[in-house]
Specification:
The protein has about 325 residues and is an alpha+beta fold. It contains 10 helices and 11 strands. Among the domains are: about 90-190, no CATH class; about 195-300, Immunoglobulin-like, CATH 2.60.40.10. The protein has a 4-stranded antiparallel beta sheet, with no helix packed on it. The chain has a 3-stranded antiparallel beta sheet with strand order 5-6-9, with no helix packed on it. Strands 1-2 form a two-stranded antiparallel ribbon. Residues about 30-75, about 80-85, about 240-245, about 305-315 and about 325 have low confidence and may be disordered. It comes from Anopheles maculatus. InterPro entries: DB (IPR002602), FN3_dom (IPR003961), FN3_sf (IPR036116), Ig-like_fold (IPR013783), RTP_Phos/Ushers (IPR050713). This is Fibronectin type-III domain-containing protein.
Length: about 325
Amino acid sequence: MNDSDVYVCEVNSDPIVRSFHPLTVRQPKKKTASSRNATESPNTSTTSLPGQSTSPETSVTSEEDDSSDMYTDSEEEVSQDGVPLVTHDFTDCCHANNVSEGCMGFCVLHNILDGSAGAEPEQCERDFPNIVRCMADGRNHVPCCVEKGIPDLCQDMCRGEYTPFTDLLKSRVSCVQHTLPGLQCILDNIQRLPSEPQSVSVEPLTERSLQVSWQAPEKLAGTVKYYQINATRLHAFDQDTLANATDAKDGLVTLQVSADQTTAVLSNLTPFTMYTVTVSAHNDHGSSLPSMRIRALTLEGGVVSKQTSVAVVPVLPAMYVRATKTL
């Protein structure tokens, strides 16, 4: 069993001084029988079975010694996908998203908790959208944040989003106290939730159906129980809102498929209508964030039957054919 959290050291001064420290509890691995034999001392007491000598070949350890647990934590525990169970360094993601070098300290979660990021938050304001997106790591932390009592206004980080607080100072102050619980959710969920599905694509099949394809998540794909595909009907081609805001169910189509599938068909859609499609991965602990939204337009009614192969050469008008012959 593995777990991680953050404990706070607080000095009752004016103003109050706090420091945050991550604590990780990990169950070390059991030594194998061969490793126990290799580390046994020559003077280890043994108990002989009746009729046996006390030579190393025939001696056995006592029942008490045999049942005792011997552990080693020399190897880092990893998931079945080979992903370390505790990974809170998002530097690679930050580099890929062009975070400035002076703000890279915020890409390591423990640096934020320890106050050792190496820069003031105000200096990295423009980098925070990418930093927070990397910290979420494609996992949906919102249920955990709700459980910890974080209000909707302060849940941006739980979704991998960052919104500068420019309207009211009150809003910014009210969210400061929820930063630590939000980071605790990230510390925990990085070890349990899958990342978002990759390479999502959408193709129109008919005027009422779309075909959605994707690839498994990069992290903890082996824990996925099912995928959920959401298609939201848009009001117009250039707007990302529901066609009927008073009844969201009319504009949302949801489909769940098993973990071994990487393609699905959304049916019963509206002809010649723009949809935005996302795919999320779910396991026993929660879900990933939705994949990047893909827009797709269903075909116009009757278009399929009118389509012809691009390989068919059109018949030229008779007059044009005769003209070409005379030339």
